[in-house]
Amino acid sequence: MTGMEAPVASAVLKLAGGKLVSLISSEFASITGVKKDLCELQGKHQEISSWLSEVRDKATGSGAQLPWVKELRNVAYDIDDLPYEVHFEAEKHKKHSDSGKQLIADCICAKPKSFLFRCRVARKVKSIKVKYDKIVKQASDANTLRRNLQMDHPAQSSNGTSAGEPSILCNVEDSKIPRRDEEKGEIVNMILEPNEVQDGHPMVVSIVGLGGSGKTTLAKHVCHDKKIKEHFKDTFWVHVTEEFDLKKLIGKLFQAITLQKSDLHAEEYMLSEISNKLRGNKFLLVLDDSWHNEKDGWDKFMVHLNGGAPGSKIMLTTRDRKVSEIVRSRHIFELGLLSNAESWSLFLESSEWVEDDLGSEYIEVGKVILNRCGGVPLAIKILGGILHQKKEISIWRAIRDSDLWTNKSIEESVFACLKLSFTHLADELKQCFTFCSIFPKGCEIYKDRLIAQWVTNGFINEINGVQPEDTGSAYFDSLVKVSFLQTPSKHFFTEQIVRTMHDLVHDLTRHILQDEVVTCLPNNMTTTYTQRCRYLSLTSCPEKVNRASFDKVHAVYIDNVSNPLYKKLVKKSSYVRSVALQSTVGAPFPLFVVKFEYLGYLEIRNLHAKDLPKAISRCWNLQALLLVSCSGFVTLPETIGKLKKLRILELNNISDLCWEDAPWNHIFYFRRRD
């Protein structure tokens, strides 16, 4: 157990509770015995939710004392699925019905399948109630629970011209740490130091520091320095990441230099273009978040950087000093941590608190917490964002007294801070945040597309008179406020808002969900390996896959869709709600997506097809359809007009499409960019 089961269960239960209320008041509840079951289930739901609100903070990091919490999360997911399934089954039957509202007796006679479905749901409700009763029995003595956890105060939740990675280089916040301005000046001087070449490639200046210490932020400030802009003709940014794949790294360099998609070109062509673009130009290349510590791999990559004009430089950021030594850095800058005074100043700025407005106990407790953050800016900013509107001293004490503070190392203290920040994140934001675990580390994620996936996965409850996209935008901004999402900026080509997630924060999402997000399938996979999988994020697929292991998958993210085994991976499912398919170059339309009857979001990139299949109309619940860089795409099928729930249609970089005959009249949001 990770110790994060309690806050996750609390968030799922809150969302499921709202859906349960609507289910009780529906026609479905009129079937004999079901409404009673639902009301009893609601009572159990409220009882355990109340306990969770009391023990959530102390339960974090104390999972061994609360074995029932993990089981509760599983049942909460079952509750969350139930109203979703009932709602869409009812919509499907309504869609096929020619008549208006019918009496239940008439409905039973006319639609026995519908009646049988509802009876099956009634049995599911009773099964959930049995599981709930077992959990309640395990956690029935709330007073003993409080004593074991030494809980004095219940926790409360408040609602509260540059190229390459252009969204990173085009936007940078003003520095909030005075010391960083001085350090920026030192690094700028190192980079501008007269020097020709170093071992055949441009001179390297490395920034070394702990995760979250501000290496990437400092590198961005260096790139925006006036002297740097005047000295270099071009500045390129490549996010390297932990996976050092030479072909992928060449593709990233190609994209950074040419602003073209790498998956559309052969490696030979990309290397030729890289050479042509760099030849004779004085450039600065940033290799951000570098992990690879083997000389051979770096030598094979660096050889492609030899064509620049004299004075070209490389700036590398890494957590490991060994990496900077392997690339033979001319200068290695060790990024220091913040002092206690600097930490407190950054916390006040991030939380927007004024010290004079805080009582003496808040200041005392706050400084104890910050000392445990180890002077790491990321941890301090996230904690400040979380405590922005939390004036209850009980919450500050709960964070200070948490069992997560092990003091074994700065790295562990930083991660403890991130876990505590998630614990105190507003419940309605928790699933929106952990959903981001489905994206690869370092991936640029579009704001509008992320919100559309939140909506279709049911993370945003409907509010009268408010569009779900507006609520989602507020959620997005809240996650930016607490630094769980890094500062958004506009993409250089689409002008849409994109964001990235810090590697440590991305690690947190995977840590929280554990086996609920599957990113790699072993060849000898057992059923238990993925029995709780809800998010599937894959770049490869083994030959033998147990499809039954993915019955509860809700969201799918797949790269390299040309792999024919994917169509065997997920069987017909009523649970899959969103699918994003990347790098479909050379592959036909992936027909396996039409198996997902309740699919609400479909994004396809680089598809090679003239049109969509008529079978797309089977996805009658489709609300968002995004086609990006699909070459040869000339028409939309007439059957797309049957998708009456389609609200968002994005056609990006599709120049051959005939627009005149397309049925746009019921689309809420339409974006076209050739």
Automatic annotation (TrEMBL):
<dbReference type="Pfam" id="PF18052">
    <property type="entry name" value="Rx_N"/>
</dbReference>
<comment type="similarity">
    <text>Belongs to the disease resistance NB-LRR family.</text>
</comment>
<dbReference type="InterPro" id="IPR027417">
    <property type="entry name" value="P-loop_NTPase"/>
</dbReference>
<keyword id="KW-0433">Leucine-rich repeat</keyword>
<keyword id="KW-0677">Repeat</keyword>
<dbReference type="GO" id="GO:0005524">
    <property type="term" value="F:ATP binding"/>
</dbReference>
<dbReference type="GO" id="GO:0043531">
    <property type="term" value="F:ADP binding"/>
</dbReference>
<keyword id="KW-0547">Nucleotide-binding</keyword>
<dbReference type="InterPro" id="IPR036388">
    <property type="entry name" value="WH-like_DNA-bd_sf"/>
</dbReference>
<feature type="domain" description="NB-ARC">
    <location>
        <begin position="182"/>
        <end position="348"/>
    </location>
</feature>
<dbReference type="GO" id="GO:0042742">
    <property type="term" value="P:defense response to bacterium"/>
</dbReference>
<dbReference type="GO" id="GO:0002758">
    <property type="term" value="P:innate immune response-activating signaling pathway"/>
</dbReference>
<dbReference type="Pfam" id="PF23559">
    <property type="entry name" value="WHD_DRP"/>
</dbReference>
<dbReference type="InterPro" id="IPR041118">
    <property type="entry name" value="Rx_N"/>
</dbReference>
<dbReference type="InterPro" id="IPR032675">
    <property type="entry name" value="LRR_dom_sf"/>
</dbReference>
<feature type="domain" description="Disease resistance N-terminal">
    <location>
        <begin position="13"/>
        <end position="100"/>
    </location>
</feature>
<dbReference type="Pfam" id="PF00931">
    <property type="entry name" value="NB-ARC"/>
</dbReference>
<dbReference type="InterPro" id="IPR042197">
    <property type="entry name" value="Apaf_helical"/>
</dbReference>
<keyword id="KW-0067">ATP-binding</keyword>
<feature type="domain" description="Disease resistance protein winged helix">
    <location>
        <begin position="438"/>
        <end position="508"/>
    </location>
</feature>
<protein>
    <submittedName>
        <fullName>Uncharacterized protein</fullName>
    </submittedName>
</protein>
<dbReference type="InterPro" id="IPR058922">
    <property type="entry name" value="WHD_DRP"/>
</dbReference>
<dbReference type="InterPro" id="IPR002182">
    <property type="entry name" value="NB-ARC"/>
</dbReference>
<keyword id="KW-0611">Plant defense</keyword>
<dbReference type="GO" id="GO:0009626">
    <property type="term" value="P:plant-type hypersensitive response"/>
</dbReference>
